[in-house]
Give the backbone structure.
Amino acid sequence: MTTFTNVPKHVEDELSRRNFFKTAGLLVFSFSTGSEARAQAGAGPYHDRDFRQLDSWIVMHEDNTATFYVGKTDCGQGTGTSFRQLMSDELDIAYEKTTCIMGSTDITVDQGGSGGSTAMERDAWPMRRAAAEARRVLLEMGSARLGVPVNQLTVSAGVITVKGDASKSVTYGQLVGGKRFNVALTGADINAVTGVAKLKTVQEHKIVGQSPQRYDIPAKVDGSLKWAVDVRLPGMVHARNIKPAVAGAKLMGIDESSVRSLPGFIKVVSKGNYVAVVCEREEQAIKAARQLKVNWEKPATAPFPSSEDLFRYMRSATPTSSAKPIVVGNPDSALASAAEIIEAEYEVPFQGHTAIGPAHAMADPSNGQMTVYSNDMKSYGMRRGVAKFLNMPQDQVRVVWMEGPQGFGRTAADDAGCEAAYLAKEIGRPVRMQWMRDEETAWDTKAPAFAMKLRGGLDAQGNLVAYDYNALAADYNHLGYNEPDTVLIAQLMGMRRATPAAGSAATPSEMYAIPHRRMTSQVVGLPLVWETPVRTGNLRDPNGPQSTFASESFIDELAAAAKADPYEFRMKLLTASTEEDRTFRRARSIACLKAAAEAYGWDRRSSPKPRGTGDILTGRGVAYTFRNQTVVAEIAEVEVNRRTGHVWVKRLVCAHDCGLVVNPESLRRTIECGMLHSLSRTLHEEVQFDTAKITSVDWISHPTLTHADTPERIDVVLVNGDPDPDRPDLPPYGAGETVCKPMLAAVANGIYDATGVRLRRVPFRAARVLAALKTARV
Amino acid sequence: MRNIVLKVNGRVHMLDVDPATPLLYILRNDLGLQGPRFGCGLGQCGACTVIINGVAARSCITPASAVKSEITTLEGIAKEGKLHPLQQAWIDEQAPQCGFCQNGQIMTAKALLDKNPHPTDAQIRAGMNATLCRCMTYYRVQAAIKRGAKMMAEARAAAEKGVVA
């Protein structure tokens, strides 16, 4: 059998740079089958990179190219390209002359990996300051080399030239290529890291604001990119898990004789309720995992209510925690004196991350150390988690980050890495772990289910004067970031935290000026707290889609009661105050809502519109929100088939303001795909379970958006208009998650406009829509 | 004993594996062709798609012993160092997000266009519908298919012109 070793290019580059192998570079590593060579290559200890050293961030090469090292990972939105743009601009080097290495724990500084849409908003700043400092230092070196003061030098595309004398020049590569800067940076933590150089102003940017194509895409379409799923090492074996047949079941016995005679069988590994099988070949491991006879004892009590019974259960449960209520004015007396009171309840079920590729990792135990090849978005967290879990010194563990299927937060609690590492230590050979589809869909992390109740009071003129919001989230024991006592393998082995890390229920994010309001939120738990497939984690704005579904649907219900146009009703609430915050969020909310309506061609009228006569009813719905400083307004044009209940969102408009835009074309695609991901959650996604196990186990029982569902037109308007011309330009804020928030309400509002029927329970699968239409005699 | 013979991207391979082994694992683990990927193992998502006899096939549920014709994988559609027009269209359109499913998107689109060089929007939607993407790149993938179809038509026209001349 041929053995392939696909060591990622950046590891190879890095090892060459460290000069471990003077001549052959990684060739020894790649083609040797001996464990000795593998053990030597890149052997630890793997110390943390010093983020206060310029050399940790930037390496200049003799050919006047640069490599940037950043402690981030890319979940599929092309953040690496944007980092390169920002750093190239500050360094004054051509974008094409740079490369970017991301997220491998022993070669990049620890910026925590990815999460929270913080790539541009927070983590790009230390990178930019490091690049600016490198430019400053290079100019000083150039000054010494050329014998003229820095203020008589210009720099462009990595070439320093004496002003007025083009014959006198020196390149960055000539000054420091192949050598170390040896320049210390300062800063209390990695986010504060800085040199003494000043950053460029927005007006000085040449590369930021352009749209170079993403550097990662060509290798993704020609099949040459090596992903975390592709790593193959000499002597490796394949593993598969065997999950409890029933949630909360106890392992009573394993009949190893049921698989012992299978070809390639190596070992059954088991501890507590964790069971895995290891075989020489992948298909052998799959077969053995299916065939292994395991005796499970069902739990005495049901682990959870059925998904049909979930919201009744949540409303009757005693909350495990309550957030401090947010109160403005006197909502009770305002409600009591309102001319009309509107009340509604909304429900969003558990929704899975359900990545297109299941959890996977390769772990190599060579040399008594542990290297995990993983797509974990928080590779640094995985390194800490694996070290603690295996009781190994942290400097003996490294995680090599490689690309993987987008998981929307799934890999923040990436079980496969810990599993592969545990098994590799047990077996003493490199182990590749991969979950199966039914396992991933059933046992991956879930966005918490929400039940929300809202009340609103209108005065005699139809003005919203009182507002009361309450949210219940099933989010007790919210998963963390690969902590050794929260990953699933640790839970199954019986490890327990003293107290679960409780999640939270969200309150709406909008700038509506409502004189009296109260917002409360509470968390409830399900009976089974540990070892449960209904375990909550961070799914793309962990709580925003749920809370915004309720808040922006309810604003539409209030507008309908006031017989007001839904856009004008919102605009009135936004303009009822002039109070601003430091990022002009009110003005930017108004600008976004206006831009969305203009792009759509919104006609002013109240909802619902007069009902059509054919099978297809059409309507439009709007919703708006913000997440941190990023503001978004979305409009959905929907078609509802009154005969089948099928909903098609024919057109989407998004007006988006995330401050400074680094790469407009890349951002547009991130926005389009984020909206469609949320549309999938709106129309299709729900984790279903009976009182013993999850029954959503594949793409039939857990459907997702398809090509046929895709809108025929999507318009994205990048607003980013600074409302105050005298103020410095806005910095970049986060993108990726904000757009996921308003979609559920925009579609619900569109369905109401088309049919007059209000849907308050997600998802809007055809059967649910049809039942609602029939009840309303549409 | 070499009990399985597979022709892939123009090369013949003889392997000694269980003939019931799904083609996907042989391509990925024995032949190092990792364009096709495991997504579901159930033939539902399309991440593992290869082209056999002009038909887009799900290699995760295709036993190796059942394959009698040549297999084309993502690695095999570029010709003479030049990307297939669809691959170029994918880059021009900047279609992928994470890219994990794009093997299936590209290979399914290729099989579609090879049979129907000028599909309508409805035919593209129907033909691509069982090829899933969790990043939801569908909007750009559909644009890339139309762009690729145009590039392929232009290439055919140029070739015909060349023959006439």
